[in-house]
Structures are given as structure tokens and as C-alpha cells.
Amino acid sequence: MPSHYNVLFLCTGNSARSIMAEAIMNRKGAPTFTPYSAGSHPSGSVRPEAIGQIENAGLSTQNFRSKSWDEFSKPDSPSLDFVFTVCDNAAKEVCPFWPGQPMTANWVSPTPPPSKELQKRSSMLLVRLSLCSTDASACFSVFRSRRSIRSPCRRKSTTLGSGRRRRCDFTHSTRVQPGDTMLKVIFACVHNAGRSQMAAAFFNQLADLSKAEAVSAGTEPGLRVHPEVLAAMQEIGIDLSAAKPQKLTQELANDAAVLITMGCGDKCPYVPGLRRDDWPLPDPKGRPMNEVRAVRDDIKVRVAKLIQAEGLEKEPA
After folding, report:
1. Band of the pLDDT at 270, cuts 50, 70, 90?
2. Residue 11, SS3 per DSSP
3. Residues assigned a catalytic role
4. Is 155-310 in the same CATH topology as 5-145?
5. In whole angstroms, what is the distance from residue 304 CA to residue 301 CA?
6. For 51, 120, 249, 273, which has the most beta carbons within 10 A of its beta carbon?
7. What's the sign of the alpha-carbon dihedral 282, 283, 289, 292?
8. Which CATH architecture has domain 5-145?
9. Pick the CATH number of 155-310 from 3.10.290.10, 3.40.50.1100, 3.40.50.2300, 2.60.130.10
10. Which pLDDT score is estimated for 103?
11. Strands (E), 150-263
């Protein structure tokens, strides 16, 4: 087990709950844990009541500021081992791509009004984080005991673009066994008009659909599937003419287990709790047909390997 962990606490405004969690972890978790905090829509300032509660607990209030979670999706940002949301709003949003493959959980905590309720929230955070202190194994136990947590798969390092990233190693993932629930795989890119559409089509053609299914989506879905992609898939007997790009939403991801992104770098989506891999594939949009075919064939090989690694092959006829 590693000797050091980076932890990010998220809420919407990064003005109270996540700030208090960072302050408590600074004291309780050192030197095993290095905490950070951020918000999906930062308010720009830390609430005075939160600062007061931190001071009342005898904790340092230096260097706290309300900041965006975008700061932690940059190539040179710290690799995160844990990402915890501490409000309902942030937990329902699709998060950006994080360096590393962090373990995630949601500590449901409604927005606290001033004074007594804020004190109550800080006390709850103190109890949870006190169990981490310097005992990492106890911290893992606490996190795993919460129903909202999902553990990442085993990891190996990879370099994507200019920054260092981690991805799931599917050669070590758990194979589907008889009686298991159906595995849902999401193939995602930005526009959901090319690579992700081809990947989902190949998956649903090659996999045993009683064990798994694939869908595709994008963070900024286009109006239609690229015509060169339609043509390349039609050449091998797969008709995507009825396929429509769709947006990657939390509802779509709720019952999914795996997220495969298509080499879109820092624009690639990240959904907390899903096992994730990134396939560094060039965008076929507007490319000559020989290049589009090469991307198509590469995707088919990758999908076949994923299906084999996950134990999702069709039974012999």
C-alpha cells in the first residue's frame, strides 16, 4: 500500500464544507494525506462562518480560497488518490478528467445555513476524517463502508498527450461470471460523432449482449455522425445511419461500470466511480477514407481485446 495519498474534497461553491474538510484533513491526516478542495461553481470567497468553525477547532485558516475544480484537471496537477463530494449538487454533475484513477465517494451534506447547522456539519466531517488520521488502511475501510463508493480497478501508468495520466489495466479486471449483473460500458468523446459511435457499434456486435451492452455519448454532442464514419462502417456491414449523438449525463452513467474515452486529452469526460481507460485515437472527422478505415480497424481490435479481458465473448454456436 502506498505511504502517501492526495485527497480532493468537492462541493459546489468551495466556500464551506469542502474547505472545512480540507482543514480537518490537514491536521488529522498529515503526513499520510495531502488534502485539497475545490468547487464546480466556486463562489469566489470562503464563508466567514466556515472560517470561524475552523478557528474554533484550533485549526489553521491560512491559504484557503474558493477555487474551481478545473485547477485539478491540468497536466501538472497532483495525481489524486481520493475524490470526495460533500454535497448533492456536485455529486450529480459530470466531473472533468482527473489525473490518476481516484477512488470516489459522496458524503451527502446539504448546504448548511449559518451558525449551529454549520457547526453540526463540521462535527460530522471531523468524525469521518478522524478515522483516517495516519492509518491509511482504516481510511480505506471507512470509505468502502459507505454505500456510494466505488473502487477503481488496478492501475498502471501511461502518458497521454503532454501530461502524465493513469488508466485502468483491463487485463487485471474482474471477468464477468454466470449470474453477474449486466455490465454497461460507455464509450465517450467530445462530439459523439465518430470514434465513440464506432466503438459502441463494434462492442454490441462482438460481445454477448446477455452479459454486457455498450452506449456512446459526448460532452458536446454534434448534430449527426460524421459522413466518413458512416461510409467506413457501411463498408463492413454496420449501419449507423440511425445513430444520433447524445450528451453524457449522470443519468446515463448511473448504472455503468466502465468508461472508455477516445483520446480527446483534457477535454475527455470523467465520471466519478467508473473504471476508466483512454484510447489515444485520432479524430476521423474530415480525414481521407484510408485514414478513417485505419481508425475504424484500430477501434475494432481494441474492442475485441476489451471484450476478451472482461469475459464478455459470445458463447460458441
Report:
1. low
2. strand
3. 189, 264, 268
4. yes
5. 5
6. 273
7. positive
8. 3-Layer(aba) Sandwich (3.40)
9. 3.40.50.2300
10. 72
11. 155-160, 163-168, 183-189, 212-218, 258-261
